[in-house]
Design brief:
By secondary structure, the chain is α/β, with parallel strands linked by helices. It is 36% helix and 25% strand. Bound molecules: adenosine-5'-triphosphate (ATP) and magnesium ion. The site of magnesium ion has 3 residues, from helix 1. One of its GO terms (molecular function) is ATP hydrolysis activity.
Length: 236
């Protein structure tokens, strides 16, 4: 599904993403972890067209999308959420999600598709509420609904569990699992909640200072000495 190879992105003297390669298969759930500032969101920004790479390549569903715009990446089937949620605050929940569905459908159908997605993420009762008046939990769900609204083949989830309570996290875990196992989506989730990563991810990738320092099965990766050192802030 996704093949990213040798991705590099610099900001001035800082190498935010440093020679990162990553493959993701259909239905695979990949946990992307690493300390603050490791380059996780920057990597998402490259994969979803918010940021161009300085070098490296990205192919998705057989299409070369290296350096492609956000709208090209969305059309190719990459849906994402933003760490800092950004709903269109003056629009309703239904309208926010309809905007994404307009990528594939005329207005009347887009509204129907949007309502189905809103149901799926458990927001039916909030359909006509203004996005600006939602709680954090609901804004996170809306962000997920917006990512789904383009009918993606791959979902990039940037810390969608942050700030949620234990039962909300459990609901979200079931929902994320269903996207991969029922809908066949590939999922990459950036997540600081290791319990969620351990219970969901088929594979975990660890970034530290822009570099990939480990990749593999969750239970193996979390015991990797390099990963433990990165999390404990050892200076090697
Ligand atoms: N647009 C930008 N301009 C300059 N520096 C940036 C920009 N975006 C990110 N950075 C820097 O790149 C590095 C990686 O940032 P990034 O947001 O990708 O990290 P992250 O792993 O998502 O961190 P967090 O866990 O805190 O969300 C950081 O040092 C950050 O300050
Ligand atoms: Mg981030």
């Amino acid at each position: 599904m996704l093949r990213a190879s040798g991705l590099v992105r610099r900001f001035g003297g800082l190498v935010a993403v440093n020679e990162v390669s990553l493959n993701v298969a259909d239905r695979e759930i990949v946990g992307l972890i690493g300390p603050n500032g490791a380059g996780k969101t920057s990597l998402f920004n490259i994969l979803s067209g918010q940021l161009g790479p300085d070098s490296g390549s990205v192919s998705f569903a057989g299409q070369d999308i290296t350096g492609a715009s956000a709208s090209v990446c969305a059309r190719a089937g990459i849906g994402r959420t933003f760490q800092i949620v950004k709903p269109l605050v003056s629009l309703t929940v239904h309208e926010n999600v309809t905007v994404g569905a307009l990528l594939n459908y005329p207005l009347a159908t887009a509204r129907e598709k949007a309502a189905e997605i809103i149901d799926r993420v458990g927001m039916r009762s909030l359909l006509d509420q203004q996005a600006g008046s939602l709680t954090l939990e609901s804004r996170k769900r809306l962000e997920l609904a917006r990512a789904l609204s383009i009918e993606p083949k791959m979902l990039l989830l940037d810390e969608i569990l942050a700030g949620l309570n234990a039962s909300e996290i459990n609901e979200s875990i079931h929902l994320i699992r269903s996207f991969a196992h029922q809908d066949g989506l590939a999922v990459i989730m950036i997540e600081h909640n290791l319990h969620a990563v351990m219970s969901l991810a088929d594979k975990v990738v660890v970034l530290d200072y822009g570099r990939k320092i480990a990749e593999g099965k969750p239970e193996v990766v979390v015991r990797d000495p390099a990963v433990v050192a990165a999390y404990l802030g050892s200076d090697d």
